[in-house]
Amino acid sequence: MQNSRNMLPPIHVIDFEGNRAHGIMEFGLVTLENGRMKNIFYRQCSPKISPQNAPFREHSRFHGNATQHSFAEYLPLFRARRRSGFFCAHNASVEDRLLRQYTFLPPMSQNMAYHALSDRCRASDKTPTPTQITPITTAPSWGPWIDTYRIYRKFYSAAKHYTLAELIRHFRLETELQTLVTQHVNNKKLTFHRAADDALATALLLQNFINLFHLKDIRFLLNC
Length: 224
Description:
The protein contains eight helices and five strands, in the order E-E-E-H-E-H-H-E-H-H-H-H-H. The protein is an alpha/beta fold and 224 residues long. The longest helix is centred in the C-terminal third of the chain and has 19 residues, at 195-213. It has one domain: Ribonuclease H-like superfamily/Ribonuclease H (Nucleotidyltransferase, domain 5), CATH 3.30.420. The chain is globular and about 45 Å long. Helix 5 packs across helix 7 (195-213). A five-stranded mixed β-sheet has the order 3-2-1-4-5.
């Protein structure tokens, strides 16, 4: 039996479709555990403001979402996932920003606090020290995030672009991804920029990277 200390904890891969004005209008959620995908879950959500507003027209496929549940109703699911493992997304700052709209602002990280203090010190050419940094710790954080965009940019300079579609093509994962989409998503054709398809694509890329490097330490992924 494989030693549990040599296994990665569950990683919950997330993709959101939405924007600042309307919030999260679609999400995909896939768990990667012991090298396998499980608990594949996706939903469309009602917008935070009326779909008649002009920016919403850019998301025409969500015009019927007004009758769906708000994403806020799914927060218990995301909190439960976060307690059981780590979050991952492709260009995770986007998902983090959208998620924060529905919760208290997370505490400022040491890195964020350092740069904020650096801006204030720049005029006097002073460099802040760790003892000067006082992070905010009164609100919960959804991080740290595993970011497949940053991982592949760091380790695969041969790729021309780092979009999900380009990376899936680069590593010849189209057929495997199409099979996953056919099995688990209602639409029969792979369509990028759909939350379920993109969450599966991100999970597949993360799985691909873990297998290539035979990773057993979550810290390696978190520090990329």
